[in-house]
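Usage

Read records sequentially. Each one opens with the input sequence:
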Amino acid sequence: MSGKLARTLLLLLLPTVVIALVGCALLAFSRRPNDTVSNRELTATVARLTAEVNRLSQQQAMPGALLAQHRSSICFIYALYSLTPLDGGWRMRPIHTRVSGTGFVVAPGIIATNRHVAQPWFDDDQDSILIRRGAVPHLERLVAFFPDLATPVELSGVHVSATEDLAIARYSLTAAASALRPLPLADSPGATGEPVVVVGYPMGVTVMLAKSPRKVYRRLSYSHETMDIARDLAAHLLIRPSATYGHLGDIVEDRLIYDAPTAQGGSGGPVFNSRGEVIGVNAAYIDGFAGGTLGVSVQALKALLRDAQSPHSGSAGSHPALQASDGAPLPDYRDLAIPAGNGSDQQH
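and closes with the structure output:
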């Protein structure tokens, strides 16, 4: 039995077990000839067990409740970029790569995601080799698909962190996009052991297709163009994020470690606490270890947001997404995403 299935069964059975224990306790107390337990102690025991049942019920309902409340502001991101040689440089054919990830609204006209989603060549081993040899990365397109919008939203004005795997991008506040609500940001990540929910688009359009009506699935399942599939799904309002549940295992500086599962395509998604506040940005996972999902803390996101909104921000311009932000080395972890298919279509 898988750990996920075992945990689900445990959550389902615990309320029943607790209620049974309460009943047994009441029966035992009622049959004691010389009852030394006061009514106050009995009442406190029942209240404590009832609170535990309520807590377990709330945890079971967390993913669905958060999706219902915040899904409209969590987008599927599609990016197309190329690597081309400098004029007069060494010979190579331009390389075009498509990637996908997740983002979410943090302010009117602004979304947050990972740097390796908004600048897909960032921290990529193969791309780094080509860039050192003289190739120039060029972000050709960056778009976001939101669950309640029938058409994609163009992203621009990318501002990246020099120290964390974070980025923000801007979008025009059209009549439709103006209805997108920023997600609430927590004051801090909280404490270890607290429940978390990660929302995003793991496996990109593959999972969304699997959740689509049969007629749509049959029409699109053989298409290899991510953009075309996403457009069709958006037109039918079938851009639907997924949610996974877990607990915060550790906090190391601006790094969060939790056991809510993720996969390729989930990078850049919000990590929520039980109050529906964002405590971090999903960033990576350790392959083969169920408790090794990594995120960047909300404090780092707030710092990047303040920097990007500063009048002295260095990301102004018609194509700031093409400006790399060099600085201190990033934390020693990376998304272990594996290129899909022939390598021309990746998910981050």
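Summary fields computed downstream for this record:
- The helical segments are 3-31, 39-70, 115-118, 125-132, 205-210, 214-220, 226-235, 298-309.
- The chain has a mean pLDDT of 80.
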